[in-house]
Amino acid sequence: MVLKPWSWLMVMVQTRVFGTTSYLILLVALRWWFSTWFSLQMSAPTFIIQRKYSSFNGYASDLVNLLDELNVNKTIFVGHSMSAMIGCIASIKRPELFKHLILLGGSPRYLDAKGYNGGFTRSEINALFKQMDRNYTSWVQAFAPVAVGMNNTPATTEFKNSLWRMKPEIALSVAKAVFLSDWRRILPKVFVPCTIIQSKRDPIVPNSVAYLHEEKS
Ligand SMILES: *[C@@H]1O[C@H](CO)[C@@H](O)[C@H](O)[C@H]1NC(C)=O
Ligand SMILES: *[C@@H]1O[C@H](CO)[C@@H](O)[C@H](O)[C@H]1NC(C)=O
To answer: I need a labelling partner for 74 at 20 to 30 A (CA). Which of 6, 17, 25, 141 fits?
Structure first.
């Protein structure tokens, strides 16, 4: 398989058989997330990256391009956190590519709003951006255990390392795309069947958000 240079940072392909059906499984990393493995792509000027990826739309286009390039359709998409929203957006762009969306801990908006509990106030979000900007290393150190939300050292270490692989300025730009986004309006446009999975104790996403997701999509 040859992927065009604009394609993906990392795509792992394997085939698995469940019962009598065989599935092609693609493990896809979001662009710009694994900088140390793909230094070539990281040499692109940061401002280009920040522009294209300051919204989930850039990632959703990547996903659609990848599926087109591999001629994959009837996808069962599994996306966690920001990737859940990216899957929703991609399914609106090209519904025929998707058969089902499995959304784990996704949220269309993290900021509180009138009549909406997103989990974060504006000042909490501002403080978070400030900490990331001031000292990214120590922000990751403090944020990772909170985000993992349980006493699981291997999981926390893995999450920390994946955050540390990002350049701080890119991480900040991604964090802004995540925490300042409001995708609530698109939920009614998601027509591909969804399975919404939300853990009870999620330090980032309140449970009420999952119910909103269910109601609207
Ligand atoms: C869906 O994918 C299969 C397998 O790659 C391909 O043969 C078929 O033409 C595709 N269908 C559409 C509508 O793109
Ligand atoms: C960031 O914080 C770490 C401790 O968590 C410290 O070792 C490092 O010197 C700090 N870096 C800067 C640039 O302040």
So the answer is: 6
